[in-house]
Amino acid sequence: MTITALPGLEPDEQAAPRPGSRAARMLIPLAADVVKDMAAEYGVCLRPVGLRRTDLDTGKTEIIDVPCGATREDKCPPCAKRARRLRKVQIREGWHRTDEPAPAPEPATEGQRALIGLRAHLEHARDQAVRSSTWDQVGEVDEAIREVEEAIAAEGLRGTVAPTHDKPVEPKRQRSTKRRQDAPALPRQKVDPRTVGRVYTAPDGAEYRPSMWLTVTLDSYGPVRPDGSPVDPSTYDYRRAAWDAIAFPRLLDRFWQNLRRCVGWNVQYAGCVEPQRRLAPHAHFAIRGTIPRAVLREVAAATYHQVWWPKVDAPTCRPVWDGDTWCDSATGTPLASWDEALDAIEDEPAHVIRFGVQLRAEGVNANDSNAERAIGYITKYITKSAADCHAVTTDRQRDHLERFWRELRVTPCSERCANWLLYGIQPKNAHARLRPGNCKGRVHQRSTLGIGGRRILVSRDWSGKTLADHRYDARAWVKALLGVSDNDTAADPESPAPVAWELARPNDPDLPPMRHRLLRALAQRIQWRNALNAARDRAAQYDSTAVLSATDDNGVKG
């Protein structure tokens, strides 16, 4: 629709709002929004956690803000961006390593070996006391064992020596480990402890050690359109899609186990799980070293995971709590317990999950532009929730998401899931607080789309460092660039100051308003960035001066 121009006014004059009008005021940015935008630009956390630090000697208290550490952009964009950058560093450092990242443990000391020997003698003495039914000696030996295990932990050994005797061992149900007849056979080799890839030699004598980028997907549940919505929703298998989404992490674990056994070395990986447009999860992985594509396809085709749960079809029970147990509201009979439901399982699992035929594997060389592009693609959606990875813009996509989520809501997610009550089965450790059809598990939330576990998957020997180690390396690099020593800021480690930390409540009188805290953090971050940029300029000038001096000494210039 076109608006008729008023007589005597130019088009530009009509477009501009009248000074002082509401339209003119709405064009002026809000000061609070400018503060948040600048804080996000400089990497300041928008939801800092206030901690009260109390000096126990003087009684002086102060509020210290620490970042919230959110990994999703809808909660805190600066912290999510920092987490994504840290993951990219972790993938980059472990992808093309040429040495083993995890060193072998140091040999045990004589004191540690002596404590282990004492623990063995106490275990033997306890066994003799149990055999002779001298129960008073059993209690004394148990107390001695507890003291020795505390000494072993204080000596620096990792883990526990043996399980405790006061905790009863629950019997485990044994399932057949024989491979399914409908699954291809897999070769099995002894897994070598090495984690680095193979070295290739070019015809000119140059050596290089490439790596790989892998993408695995699930099977099809029905034809879909380019936007991910099904062509025929009535024939789309939403039930199998929901079960596959919940069991997908177990399938990935089985894939890496089978791959290592097939190739014969400890394959390392780092990747991310995210949904496709059809809402089915798939995974992108960076693999250290190279594996033939035919082997990857063979292992993916032969990998499966069996879910040994009671078979369920559709919710048919309306459970009620009668004060002692869950019963069927129609008949009043108690529901079958979890152990009884497991005893009724015959030879077939409730669900079997497999990979689809689509598998993509590409080789990537170190210091190649494709490596950085692949790292960016792997970490593209890690700061978003699963439901926000792909924009839902059409009614078909909204209906598809609604149908898939409704199926996820009634699909059991674990042995303790409240949804088992809808199928006439009491979950493990059932209680009156359960709400059938409203399990609190993350897989049932609309924002997760069934991907309730960790979306970032990194093998144990990928980079040899944890995220805390990578954060420490980043701080050490900044301190080295600024010329700041740890002795200038850290207290004496031999005599740490006695302080107490507690969480500050929002209504505490000594907690400043959020905007004051953001402004202080913004000023501090601006000073840090200016100092860091100045240090970089000095380092660049020093490098250029060193290069010129070297060329002058060699007689090339001057």
Residue ranges: pLDDT <50 for 5 or more in a row? Answer: none
Number of continuous helical runs: 14
| Percent range for β-strand residues | 5-15%
**Helical proportion, percent range:** 25-40%
Please give the number of β-strands: 13
Topology, please?
Elements: H1 11-15, H2 22-26, H3 31-41, E1 49-55, E2 61-66, H4 77-95, H5 110-131, H6 135-155, E3 200-201, E4 207-208, E5 211-218, H7 238-263, E6 269-275, E7 281-287, H8 293-302, E8 304-307, E9 319-321, E10 326-328, H9 338-343, E11 351-364, H10 369-378, H11 395-409, E12 456-458, H12 467-482, H13 486-489, E13 499-503, H14 514-554
Antiparallel strand pairs: 1-2, 1-13, 3-4, 5-7, 5-11, 6-7, 6-12, 8-11, 9-10
Can you put this structure into words, describing what you see?
The protein has helices at about 10-15, 20-25, 30-40, 75-95, 110-130, 135-155, 240-265, 295-300, 340-345, 370-380, 395-410, 465-480, 485-490, 515-555, and strands at about 50-55, 60-65, 200, 205-210, 210-220, 270-275, 280-285, 305, 320, 325-330, 350-365, 455-460, 500-505. With about 550 residues, the protein is of the alpha+beta class. It has a 6-stranded antiparallel sheet. It has a 3-stranded antiparallel sheet with strand order 2-1-13, with no helix packed on it. The chain has a two-stranded antiparallel ribbon with strand order 3-4. The longest helix is centred in the C-terminal third of the chain and has 41 residues, at about 515-555. The radius of gyration is 31 Å and the shape is globular.
